[in-house]
Amino acid sequence: MISATAIVNEPIAIAIASRNTARHLLLIHPSSPCLLASSPASRRRFLYCGRRRRVDGDPHHPLLFAQDMFPSNLCAVAPLLFPFPLQPPPPSSTPPATRFCHNASNPLVYEEGPFNTEHTNIGCAPWRKRTSPCSVCLKLETLDSQIAETRAFLEHLETHRAALEPSINNAHDPFTSLLPTELASRIFRFCMNEEDLDSDPGPEPWPLHRVPFVLSAVTKRWQAVARLTTSLWTHVCLRLDPSHTWRLKEEMLNEWLSRSSPHPLTVQLEILYCNSKDLRWWVFCRSIIVTLSKHSTRWGDISLKTPDHLLPLFRAYRPGTPHLRSLSIARAFPDEVSDPDNVFDLRTTLPTPQSITLLGCQLRIAHIDWNKVTQADISGITVYESLKMVRSAPALRECILYNIAEVGSIHRLHGEYLLHTALTTLDINISIDQISLFFDRLTTPSLKSLRFECFGQSLDPVTTFLQRSSCPLTSLTILHGACKLNHNHELIEVLEIVPTLETLHVYNVKTFDEFFELLDQQQSRNNNDDQHTFLPSLTDLSVNWRYGAPTFSWSAVHKAIAARVSAEPGREGQGKPMRIELEPYISEDEGGYYIDEESLEGFQRLIHDGVEITIRNMAGHMDVIAYSKKYYADRKA
Q: FRET label pair with 209: which of 51, 139, 310, 593, CA 20 to 30 Å apart?
């Protein structure tokens, strides 16, 4: 239905454009709601029925101009107001064909025909003849009401179905329906993977360890069992980042911590950015640290990687003795100058951890009791602090010292020598010019594993250290970084004083035929014979070098391995299994790129007998045995 309201007592023209029909122009008189005229756009003829006036064929008439304003590709209805009366054109001798109202009962049906005396008094019917709705409208109204009610009922049914769906899991779950709660809780504990806590946290802010949430999302029964299993909630892994962590609320963290009570907590906290000028973020980080610190008496293992100025916020807010077993502190910005006041101090009874890790930190950064420390992993300290730490930890068994690049206040030791009887494993990376400043002051009679890395220095201080310690060393790893000098004789001197050695890994130390000839030495069966056997217990050998062609022959390597593993009566070998790994760096134009045929066949026999032999060319990470076999096969072909 088209309606229009006139503001002056003049006819109104309405232009209609349709995609499917031709354009039309309708005239409606404001004084009477009746249709006055209608004409297709294809014809330039119009009929003014109310006043019996015609507009025919005038291309400049305002009605035609209004009609052409609306393009045929638009659907529009626009009332156009004409502030002037419409005048009929001059009379014509031939009456034009017109479209006019047919009768009052069907006012919108028109017929084509001559305008003659047969149709002299045809009146236009009003828009609404009836005062009450017709039966069809009543039926449509009833149907619309029923459709609305049906849609509302369907929405209700869908909501009810969504509420019933979780009950299916409860009804069909044999895990919680057949097993008692205690057994289900024990099974839940196996879902915790401790290795996940040592992995890179990645972009996930909190909680990284999502096992409790995953278990709680299955059914309400699973959720109840998970919440009752307090050990599921003992791991708190947080990585605070301004772009991700605003979802974490203090109330959520409190609820998590309360579910784990009274078990010891394992806390991992990483904050890579916290500037005091960013007040809102600083307050947020402080609130998280304070919340964690309120449970400091339950800290079992805590690992921190934060800016230094946040460390003083970790303090005991409640009385009690801390039960800290492991403490790890890593600086978020290692190159930043640290304030002496930025320390980890609970300000209560000193914690007595068994494991301590300080990465890029000085010893003063952690106020702890070192007497019960058994494992230490420390980097970025001086030689003086290293020896001081070893002396402060009499129970220390495993020690890793990395990036010892400065001497420090070594003069404070006043020639003091340290005897440490508990130390069994020592791993040290030292880059100072004189490694003797460390090894000459230390004696470790219980040492079983030694791994040290130096840069092109003599191995004599290590030899003196092992002689003085007289330790039962079983594993030795030597890394000579960026050294092209010949230290083969020094290496042999070191190995001759450790006959208990079982595992030997040598990196970037040139080895010659002399070394493998010593390994080929036959062991005498006569116990009274003074003949010395070179490394009689060796079962694991790894040699890696990256500078030039190998300085040994493949035949010497084969003979040494065969002598070690052979148990035949004609040989004096020990019959022990061996693992051999050789990793040279050889270019194709250098000698030794291919294994000679005799040694190649010998290596293949040893591999067939069960000896684990790996020879890999690091120039292309290629198997030397494999490409040597192919080389000789192609030559014979």
A: 310
Lowest mean pLDDT among 92-101, 323-332, 420-429, 451-460: 92-101
Do you know the residue count of the chain? Answer: 637
The verdict on residue 144 lying in a domain is yes
Distance (Å, rounded) from C-alpha 240 to C-alpha 291? 14
Looking at residue 532, what is its pLDDT? 67
Q: Which two tokens stand for residue 372?
A: 């019960």
**Best CA proximity match to 166, nearest among 156, 153, 176:** 176
Side-chain-facing half-sphere of 519: CA atoms under 13 Å = 30
> Is residue 592 within 8 Å of residue 586, measured between CB atoms?
yes
Q: What is the DSSP letter of 618?
A: T
What pTM does this model have?
Answer: 0.68
Q: How far apart are CA 237 and CA 205, in angstroms?
A: 9
Q: Name the helix (H) or strand (E) containing 27.
A: strand 24-28
Q: Let me know: does 628 contact 595? Beta carbons within 8 Å.
A: yes
Instruction: Band the pLDDT of 23: cuts 50, 70, 90.
Output: very low
Helix (H, G, I), strand (E, B) or coil at 443: strand
- Judge if 145 and 104 occupy the same domain: no
**Distance (Å, whole) CA 428 – CA 402:** 6
Closest CA to 295 of 268, 318, 312, 327: 318
Residue 450 pairs in a beta bridge with 426, 476
Mean of pLDDT values over 33-46: 42
18 and 73 share a domain? yes
